[in-house]
Amino acid sequence: MFDDLTHLRYLDLSSTAIRTLPKSAGFLYNLQVLMLSKCFNLVELPENTRNLINLSHLDVTETKLEEMPPEFGRLKNLQILTTFVVSKSSGSSMSELGRLLHLCGKLSIQELQNVRNVADAEDAKLKDKENIKELIFTWKTSGPDIRKETDVLEKSLRIQFQDMMMHYTELQTLHITSSCDSLTFFPLNLANKVENLQIQNCSHLKCIQLSKDLCQELKFLQDLDISDCDDLEFFSGRGMQTPNLTSLSLSNCKNLASMPEQMHTLLTSLQALCLSYCPKLESFPNGGLPPNLHSLLIENCDHLTPQKDWGLNKMASLTRLTIIGGCSNLKSFPEEGLLPASLISLQVGELPKLEILNLRGIQFLTSLKGLHINSCNKLHCLSEGKLPVSLSSLSITGCSLMSERCQQSQGEDWPKISHIANKVINGKVM
């Protein structure tokens, strides 16, 4: 197929149905760029891929590669390698990465459970690859030999990880997904130059740790996303001194019982806070929420019900508030004086005991443009009061008791909503 194309320098086969490259691809000695992204059926590269000694860019994102071919480290001119799949048997071990000295940008290392021994991991020389800006580790946590495999991997990571992180002066994004059982705490200081940190599906992680001796070095962290960490219970220390953190997301952390201390003084740059499926959270630390939040989402946190001591009414930057599920005892919302006048969008849904939408808590929200109520089966009326004249969109869906109350020209609550330009009540445009 490629026999007569020995001078080819650029080959793009992205989004094709190929399962493997023909052997003749290994004779493209002058090839510099090989694009194979979104080849969803691609499972292997030919063994003679090692002959592509001038290759500088290899993109195999969104493929099903099972391993890298043997002697992959011979591709010493590689600068962009999107994915390295560690081989369990005949392909390239992790040590082959050690020969690729010029890697930069984003690198995803997959099937890490196949690391053969500690020396194999050390030979990868990850700590020397200082130009990598985004690093993703993934490995499987099930299989017949998984206990032996993860024992090796855990020892390798304990030896390398701290030293490696100290050398990655250019690393901007770090994803840790489906970790070994031994990761019971994560010291944030190891990621002291990282801007985006994602920790996902680390089932035995119990604590996010911050050493006060190094806390000032976390000035680069902007986004922190922790999800599916069932054993995570708390953030240690006296809060997170991350002055430039703008987004914090915690989801599916079933045992998380407390938020970082001193949020209102330490997280002054935080703009977006998302809390989802954290059933043991009951409140925020003394002092309330960070003062400069723009967006707050609370979803299915059973015991986390909005309170005045959160300081929402003082948050002049808060424009979007979403409450979905939880709040099991909430019958009327919002309490008068609870919300700030800066609010532009208010959405509540799936509140099982909500009966009354309290207009006294809404009428002074002079910036409010969108109000959306969804799946509150017991909601049966709007209280005395008015909706703000700024409101241009009202949506009440899945609240069957409200249809008659909001019936055009006849419903008891119609005078309260008639001035709104766009109104949808249980699927009916009013």
Automatic annotation (TrEMBL):
Entry protein name: Disease resistance R13L4/SHOC-2-like LRR domain-containing protein
Keyword Repeat: yes
Listed Gene3D superfamilies: Ribonuclease Inhibitor (3.80.10.10)
Organism of provenance: Acer saccharum (Sugar maple)
Any Pfam family matching the protein: LRR_14
InterPro entries given in the database record: Leu-rich_rpt_typical-subtyp, LRR_dom_sf, LRR_R13L4/SHOC2-like
Positions of the Disease resistance R13L4/SHOC-2-like LRR domain: 4-201
Keyword tags: Leucine-rich repeat, Repeat
Entry keyword Repeat: yes
Lineage: Eukaryota, Viridiplantae, Streptophyta, Embryophyta, Tracheophyta
Top-level lineage group: Eukaryota
Secretion signal span: none
Coiled-coil region list: none
